[in-house]
Design a protein that fits this description.
Elements: H1 2-10, E1 15-19, H2 24-36, E2 41-45, H3 51-61, E3 66-70, H4 75-84, E4 88-90, H5 96-104, E5 109-110, E6 112-113, H6 116-124, E7 129-132, H7 140-148, E8 155-156, H8 167-171, E9 179-181, H9 187-192, H10 195-211
Helix pairs in contact: 2-3, 2-10
């Protein structure tokens, strides 16, 4: 059930913006810009004091967005994020505690893996959708191609070091559902409140993916 729910979310956008929100007041205009640009699946990282309020604000005021939480590190993170309105969770890795809590609370969960052994451990817990992280450090496209043969049942959302120049190369791989990246919402644009720039970056990413055959669903 969790994999099915997660897949339904991830298939709504070719790129998941990875957002580090410093000011709560930026959350709603940022979310609206990304949704308007065609990227409605958002990952708000738990790296700032504003993260939980930002998730709550997005959940309340940007109903078109599918708001998730990133950088889940503990069971407490899972609980407070879900209570704030997060619809799915993302972690740089995975621990038995995180897996148990997300499964108990029925929160769709995208665990991070970096090796075949870690991917197999997730398979043993019934998960078939994973985040390759940090993608550019652990082998990127060649690693995904290599993992695809022996672990064909796994689908990935690679994140970490992916940008405008290479995200389409990842999306062309058969075992990649979507990619995660921060280039569509640059920190300087958020600080400046340049929502039009962010909307344009999001629209460009979705348009490139659609031109190459990507379709939501």
């Amino acid at each position: 059930m969790s994999d099915e729910a997660l897949l339904a979310i991830l298939r709504q956008a070719p790129v998941i913006p990875v957002l580090t929100i410093e000011r709560v007041e930026d959350a709603v205009p940022l979310g609206r810009a990304l949704v308007a640009g065609g990227l409605p699946v958002l990952e708000v990282t738990m790296r700032t004091p504003a993260a939980l309020e930002a998730i709550a604000a997005l959940s309340e005021h940007v109903p078109e967005a599918l708001v998730g939480v990133g950088t889940l590190l503990s069971s407490e993170d899972v609980v407070v994020a879900q209570d704030s309105g997060a619809l799915f969770g993302v972690s740089p890795g995975a621990t038995p505690e995180l897996i148990d809590t997300t499964q108990r609370r029925k929160l769709p969960f995208l665990p991070g893996v970096a090796t075949a052994s870690e991917a197999m451990a997730m398979l043993s817990r019934g998960m078939r959708i994973m985040k390759l992280f940090p993608a550019s450090v652990v082998g990127g496209i060649p690693a995904l191609k290599a993992l695809g043969a022996p672990l064909a049942e796994i689908s990935f959302c690679p994140t970490g070091g992916i940008g405008e120049a290479d995200f389409m190369d990842y999306l062309k791989l058969p075992n990649v559902i979507c990619v995660g990246g921060s280039w569509v919402a640059p920190a300087d644009a958020i600080r400046a409140g340049d929502w039009k720039r962010i909307e344009a970056l999001a629209r460009a990413a979705r348009s490139k993916a659609q031109a190459a055959g990507w379709r939501a669903g």
